[in-house]
User: What shape does this take?
Amino acid sequence: MNTEKIVSFRLIKPLLGKQPDFLYQENQKYLLFQPLREKSILFLVGSQLPVLIVPDDNSSIIRQIKNRKNDDFFSTPLSNLKFKLDFINIAEGISENSWYRDGLLVKETNKIKKAEGEIDTPVTFKIISQQKMDIRKTNYVHLLKIEPLNLGIKGMPPITQLLFDFHDSCSGGISESTVLLKSKFYNNNILTETTGKIFTMKIKSQIFGSWNDKRFGYNTLSFGSNWDFDWDSWQEVDESEYSKPDKEGVFSEPTKNDNKSNDNHSFSKKIKGFQNTKIGMIIGVILVLIALILRKKKK
Assistant: This one.
């Protein structure tokens, strides 16, 4: 079953320090946004909230975006996005240290549509193996290795791991989220008896890797709360509903350095000059700021 994977989002101005919310490259103007779900982030790549880069071609949909209301949603296929590693240094003009934000470039604006609301992204995958890891009292992570899952984003590797994070707190949801530790998946055979089986689920927030664990790179999707995936959508499906992964993935053209594989990219290198112990605090501050923006826009 090869169905196009679509995401929906609201758009706010990105948190770029002194950087403008647009730029020019090769005589083309690009608008910069932070894409969000209703109450949470849409994308998190390691420790970074990537910026959505939209060509300003003065088309009808661009005019709608410029004149959008606070609760307007838009949608586009994941295959219409291209990952841009270290897209912009948001610390420029503020600090001597660099802090790079990744970007997601919209390839074709005519594939952006007005949406009625949030759209969860259904995925189907076959599990190769499963393992509980890092068990500490009540907390642990559960890693599922899967056959390659192609989300369609150009410059990103196929997903080969799903990481379920059972901790008291996590970075996926902004506010009012319920952590996975309080779900039906916690210490249950729902995940332990999965090897060799095929499952489907609906993803809400696309969280690539782990913001505080270098073992998990761009080939890992992480889940820590009910803002990250629809808990009730998890179900085993028949072989007939599963398509074998393509031999060629979307990661045929690395975005920045041909000798560097993004699936093992070290997220700690993204914030040069900052101590890794401060990364979590920085992410927390950004999420709180976004939460305040969302609440203010709702009033």
Helices lie at 60-66, 189-192, 279-298. The chain has a mean pLDDT of 83. Residues 121-241 form a domain with the OB fold (Dihydrolipoamide Acetyltransferase, E2P) fold (CATH 2.40.50). The chain has two domains: 6-119, 121-241.
